[in-house]
């Protein structure tokens, strides 16, 4: 990495450690006594009292600059989503600091939506939850519904969301989440939803969001969408930053590490975004099955 | 995962000072830091539409699978009142001491339920919505306030049922009914404040939610929901301290205020002394104190 002295940083992570504490793993002797221990001797004996410490992110430092799109890769459970949440300020860090320009936002409103409500009310609720004003939601309402394509097969937006198929619900969620412009945008496995035509539309929307946003972070197990969207990649493995560099360099190492290399060199010796390849033909599919 | 990784990060990690200085030079702020109290109030005000929309959505979602749908909003409190009437009015025969026993009891049950369910919802406001807390940015106080607001909306449905009951039992419509509005505002402030206190406690120690029903049930039985406090405090057989505690109990204060407002046979002399001062004092104490207490831990909510 060269010196970026004239570039404007938007996210600076400085020696970040993130630790989860999990109660009730029964690591102590007999979980009831362990629980009692935990209450009586709060600070001294966390370890002895059956609280497991999961060190999810270890001493990670990086600087992201305005206009960059950064991919986050790593095998399941390597701390990608955790790091993203900490950048968004949603998880406290144990050590170190994360400095940001403005308020980074996670692309995701799933948790604010309610399955028992109609799609229409969920659009409003989700928009308000993301911090849009009532007027903004009203203004964007039609765009959101059109983008989701929910009403292409009839008037579904006035039905409760629990009646939607999983694909339809995922499309509506993405449409609501993508309706707002952000300074720093964090995307966690959002591109894998919906059918092929919806995926194309959402990739275009992500590119559009990137132009508005200062910086975009993308977590994905889909190597193709990382290559399509990002010019820089951070590779996390077991919570440690294993590599940070231009997409091609890091992806090559990563694919060698996950054992994709053979499949990949068979099919495409020059990994130069073959647009015809749909994600279903991704050779890494069996290797990295689920979004974390 | 069994393979051992040797992972010296190949990036030449710059010294800590450099990164911190770089951040400071470009005016970056620490992510997820707690805002100042005035900023926090401002953020909360900016999210007022979310707070009300979230409360209404929760309320509507509650009965959306039922055949009778929103009718349950009114049916639920009515059935509740019927059960209490059956137990305390018919089986235990408490009613002989109190005129207009059914309106007296039902008012008590509804007003108590408002406080009780606000506090219960408050204990789970953060711990039960971790998904939301970990996905979106908003002042976390929006959650306990929103749950208290949901209970207020629920209470308004109950009040509609209560008006029907009052009229059916021959309680006349009076100007004093208007006193119900300030009483409700004060009670809502109190409830929201206590919700925020238990929300912070429940976020740190989820076990509070297991303990709370017992505390609340005990509190209910000393709050004069089914019996009249003044009947007990009038006698000289109680120590002064107990009398004072019974009279200053915030739940009893709000319940008796509402009875005084709505029921013509519930007279002013049955109210605890300085009842409006007590009602306002509790509302301010819990509302302001609870808000500050909750804000103090703002940046820690959502930790696993």
UniProtKB/TrEMBL annotation, chain A:
<protein>
    <submittedName>
        <fullName>ABC transporter ATP-binding protein</fullName>
    </submittedName>
</protein>
<feature type="compositionally biased region" description="Low complexity">
    <location>
        <begin position="276"/>
        <end position="285"/>
    </location>
</feature>
<feature type="region of interest" description="Disordered">
    <location>
        <begin position="247"/>
        <end position="292"/>
    </location>
</feature>
<keyword id="KW-0547">Nucleotide-binding</keyword>
<dbReference type="InterPro" id="IPR003439">
    <property type="entry name" value="ABC_transporter-like_ATP-bd"/>
</dbReference>
<feature type="domain" description="ABC transporter">
    <location>
        <begin position="40"/>
        <end position="263"/>
    </location>
</feature>
<dbReference type="InterPro" id="IPR017871">
    <property type="entry name" value="ABC_transporter-like_CS"/>
</dbReference>
<comment type="similarity">
    <text>Belongs to the ABC transporter superfamily.</text>
</comment>
<dbReference type="GO" id="GO:0005524">
    <property type="term" value="F:ATP binding"/>
</dbReference>
<dbReference type="Pfam" id="PF00005">
    <property type="entry name" value="ABC_tran"/>
</dbReference>
<keyword id="KW-0067">ATP-binding</keyword>
<dbReference type="InterPro" id="IPR015860">
    <property type="entry name" value="ABC_transpr_TagH-like"/>
</dbReference>
<feature type="compositionally biased region" description="Basic and acidic residues">
    <location>
        <begin position="247"/>
        <end position="269"/>
    </location>
</feature>
<dbReference type="InterPro" id="IPR050683">
    <property type="entry name" value="Bact_Polysacc_Export_ATP-bd"/>
</dbReference>
<dbReference type="InterPro" id="IPR027417">
    <property type="entry name" value="P-loop_NTPase"/>
</dbReference>
<dbReference type="InterPro" id="IPR003593">
    <property type="entry name" value="AAA+_ATPase"/>
</dbReference>
<keyword id="KW-0813">Transport</keyword>
UniProtKB/TrEMBL annotation, chain B:
<dbReference type="InterPro" id="IPR047817">
    <property type="entry name" value="ABC2_TM_bact-type"/>
</dbReference>
<feature type="transmembrane region" description="Helical">
    <location>
        <begin position="147"/>
        <end position="171"/>
    </location>
</feature>
<feature type="transmembrane region" description="Helical">
    <location>
        <begin position="104"/>
        <end position="126"/>
    </location>
</feature>
<keyword id="KW-0813">Transport</keyword>
<feature type="transmembrane region" description="Helical">
    <location>
        <begin position="241"/>
        <end position="262"/>
    </location>
</feature>
<dbReference type="InterPro" id="IPR013525">
    <property type="entry name" value="ABC2_TM"/>
</dbReference>
<feature type="transmembrane region" description="Helical">
    <location>
        <begin position="274"/>
        <end position="295"/>
    </location>
</feature>
<keyword id="KW-1003">Cell membrane</keyword>
<feature type="transmembrane region" description="Helical">
    <location>
        <begin position="74"/>
        <end position="92"/>
    </location>
</feature>
<keyword id="KW-0997">Cell inner membrane</keyword>
<protein>
    <recommendedName>
        <fullName>Transport permease protein</fullName>
    </recommendedName>
</protein>
<comment type="similarity">
    <text>Belongs to the ABC-2 integral membrane protein family.</text>
</comment>
<dbReference type="Pfam" id="PF01061">
    <property type="entry name" value="ABC2_membrane"/>
</dbReference>
<feature type="domain" description="ABC transmembrane type-2">
    <location>
        <begin position="68"/>
        <end position="297"/>
    </location>
</feature>
<keyword id="KW-0472">Membrane</keyword>
<keyword id="KW-1133">Transmembrane helix</keyword>
<keyword id="KW-0812">Transmembrane</keyword>
